[in-house]
Amino acid sequence: MKSKLIITYFILIHVALFFVIIKSGFVPVIKNKLKGVSGRPELTRFYYRMVGYHRIMDENIPEKSVLFIGDSNTQALAVCLITPLSINLGIGGDTSFGVLKRISNYNSFKRARAVVIAVGFNDLRRRNNEEIFKNYTKISEVISEHTDLIFSGVLPVGKPYNQYKILNKRIQKLNTKLKELCLSRKNRYVEVGSFLSDNQGNLISDYHVGDGIHLNPKGIRIWSYKLQKALETSKKGSNKTNDEAKIDSVH
């Protein structure tokens, strides 16, 4: 009888512990760690704080501005050197999901001359290419209704970033799909990876800060130049024909 009570006690303890673990959210954290996300929420406190600042400044953004939206590489851009009357809405760590969630906060999109989107790297450890592509499509559907939309391809990675060879093949496939989307929806696509990478497709060390991900001033100048050329031939205010203005791979 005593042994049965002990067994029952241990069973109840384990059942209670099971429900505590489920309720605590511990399982999703472990799942994310196994995926390489380290349990970090996708939309961080920094993300929400920056969106709050953007909402404050949004009503003061002049008409016909060029808006840049993306992750940490975008946030590091001196956008006024790319084109006059430009606003940087980049947020470090952002994803295609984060961009899709926050664009409804920006009324300035409706009166902008153009919107430049450069996001997708941080998605790679959270969702597959098809899911990222679906977010790109939704972003295009929302923004293209109001203004010209320019997508910049996801930048390649290099040493010492882990698994950079495999990752760059995935990035190339994602960019191919993004380029096709831009052609089908008459958005513009800026391809810059080939200008920053070696003959194996890896980000050249001369162009990043040392982590294999973030561009240094030299790399940013190349990227900025390609974005500048794309904006010079954007649909509004361009002297090019419609066919010439559909896409800008800038080779």
In short:
The protein is an alpha/beta fold and 251 residues long.
Written overview of the protein:
Strands 2-1-3-4-5 form a five-stranded parallel sheet. The protein has helices at residues 2-24, 26-34, 45-58, 72-75, 96-102, 129-143, 164-185, 193-196, 217-232; strands at 66-70, 86-88, 114-118, 148-152, 188-190. It is α/β, with parallel strands linked by helices. The model is unreliable at 12-36 and 237-251 (pLDDT under 50). Helix content is 45%, strand content 8%. It is globular, with a radius of gyration of 22 Å. The termini are far apart. Helix 6 packs parallel to helix 7 (164-185). Strand 4, helix 7 (164-185) and strand 5 (188-190) form a beta-alpha-beta unit.
List keywords for this structure.
single chain; 251 residues; alpha/beta; 5 strands; disordered C terminus
Q: What is the number of E strands?
A: 5
| Integer-rounded radius of gyration | 22 Å
Main beta sheet: strand number and arrangement? 5 strands, parallel
State the low-pLDDT regions, or none.
12-36, 237-251
Give the overall silhouette. Answer: globular
Measured between the Cα atoms of the first and last residue, the distance is 82 Å
Record the strand order, biggest sheet. 2-1-3-4-5
Find the structural class using helix and strand composition. Answer: alpha/beta
Helix content: 40-55%
Q: Output the helix-strand order.
A: HHHEHEHEHEHEHH
Put simply, the count of helices is: 9
Overall mean pLDDT stands at 83
Q: In what range is the share of β-strand residues?
A: 5-15%
